Amino acid sequence: LATGPRQSNSIFYEIRTYDIKPSRMKEFLEMVSKHFHLRTAHSELVGFWSAELGVMNKVVHIWKYDSFAHRKAVRHALANDKDWQGKFLSPVLPLIEKQHNEIAYLVPWCQLGKPPKEGGVYEWVTFQMKPGGPALWGEAFQTAINAHISTGYTKLIGVFHTEYGLLNTVHVMWWNESPDHRAAGRHSAHEDARVVAAVRESVRFLESQQSMLLIPVECSPLK
Asked: Which family does it belong to (predicted)?
């Protein structure tokens, strides 16, 4: 990360977040459960989650693409898929208040991980770093992430660095067995001198930070 913002190949990830109308969230998730296979027939879904804590009535889904040409071809195919347009997209659009997407790459020192078992929860932490990119803050950020990994209480799923969207943004996804397991681990980490030292160095480059606790939906490959 200290020498570049992304892996060396052309693979990237589109991170989509939708704000759903509060009274329509149940209906939206039912539509996803019933018809989302029409979307995953076109390209690879990494995961699909609904927010439980941090924000309300929000969903996050991540798509993997081989290249921008690949994404363009997928978008063209979706526009011409009558089942997708008629059975899912048109009915759910009135349920959505806002849509946002980002293009991001995995950082070079991170591979996309999987949880050791199903049934846990995911934490999505967004760091807004100071302008300057990984050449400025990459080494300190990596050290802070590795310090948390070394405590053993949490599982790293992925570290994504935004290419399109708000720049100098890093999204980190963690997996824990439960919210209580996460809380206990965080408490221990705050008393770990290695973690404290690494975080103190990293926050010198931090502008803001926020987190969401995410629950995977039925169709999510990452559960």
From this structure: Belongs to the NipSnap family.
pLDDT category of residue 6 using cuts at 50, 70 and 90: low
Spatial distance between the Cα atoms of 109 and 202, rounded to a whole number of angstroms: 17
118 close to 223: Cβ distance less than 8 angstroms: yes
Measured from the Cβ of residue 71, the count of other Cβ atoms closer than 10 Å reads: 17
User: Please, which residues bridge with residue 61 across strands?
Assistant: 16, 48
Domain 12-103 sits in CATH 3.30.70.100 = yes
| Cα–Cα distance, 77 to 61 (Å, whole number) | 19
Alpha carbons 201 and 218: distance in angstroms, whole number: 39
Smallest CA-to-CA distance from 123 within 79, 86, 176 is with 176
Q: 106-216: same fold as 12-103?
A: yes
Domain regions of the chain by residue span:
12-103, 106-216
Question: What is the CB-side half-sphere exposure of residue 80 using CA atoms within 13 A?
Answer: 6
pLDDT in tens, 172-211: 999 999 999 999 999 998 899 999 999 999 999 999 999 9
Q: Which CATH architecture has domain 106-216?
A: 2-Layer Sandwich (3.30)
pTM: 0.93
| Other C-beta atoms lying within 10 Å of the C-beta of residue 48 | 25
Extended strands (E) in 71-135? 96-106, 121-129
